[in-house]
Design a protein that fits this description.
By secondary structure, this protein is mainly α. It is 45% helix and 2% strand. The chain has two domains: 17-81; 141-282, no CATH class. The protein has helices spanning 17-27, 32-39, 46-52, 55-65, 69-74, 144-160, 168-175, 196-199, 202-207, 224-240, 242-249, 254-271, 276-282, and strands at residues 94-96, 128-130. The chain has a two-stranded antiparallel sheet with strand order 1-2. The chain starts with 16 loop residues before the first helix and ends with a helix. The protein binds zinc ion. Zinc ion (ZN) binds next to loops. Zinc ion binds next to loops.
Length: 283
Amino acid sequence: MRQRLPVTLPPFPDELLSSWFTRHAAFYAVSPEDMLRHCSPEAPSLRALDLNLNRGQATQLSEMLSIDPNAVLRMTFSNIRKPIHRFIAKAPMQRCSNCYLEDSDPVPIRRGQLFGWRITCSLCGGMLRSIGQNDPDNSFTQYFDIALRGEKLLNDDAEHNICSWTSPLELARLLLMRRIPHPLPRGDDLWRFRVLGAVIPDLDNVMGQETSFTPCPKRPILSLRFRTALLAGVAFVERSGPEMLRMLQGHTFGHNRNNFKKESDRLIARTFEWDSPKQMQLI
Ligand SMILES: [Zn+2]
């Protein structure tokens, strides 16, 4: 019979379960892996607990750590659908200067630090900063207000499974697909052009300064700089409705067009199952 931990540290607001585990490991002077083996020996990794904790594991942990099982579940991403896990970073990529506890050792990690759809702190509403970067990026400040609406749309979709005529997270993935610009650029610069640029025209100029751009529909986590543009683009398309998706099909070509059309037609078809009067109220 494994022993219940004699001392339990209180979790910080929105703290991630693996972070809480790691702080207990430091307190008891053991490795996080040893702590995991003691408390939840069947779990393959701390990351697996963060992503896929089930009710049984939560109950087991709650007994070991003298805490309510629902509180354990709230420290994980178990409320988030599996396809959306691709929007959750593997390590913290952002922090809020108001809420970051840099004097703690180890520094607690909040759930929101891994979310690829946030530009503001879910606790205090402050602007997030990229880890290791102190100065804010002003590339897309003119879109900030609409980006905040996009952030709420994506957050409601991810955290609460609430959306209007389509999934904003699926819209975000579509907007990262390749686009064909007119006129065609010289050289091999086509990788810079995304469907998002047809919605946010300033994107092409900012992308022109980049030497690479790795986010794509399969790996949709953008730096905070480009995330503002993506969230604003999602909000524009969501507000405009399915007709805008049809219009965007005309900005794609060849294999990319087939993929974009297939995915966007799927989203448009779903709108027929949706009650349109509600859509009007949301707009
Ligand atoms: Zn904050």
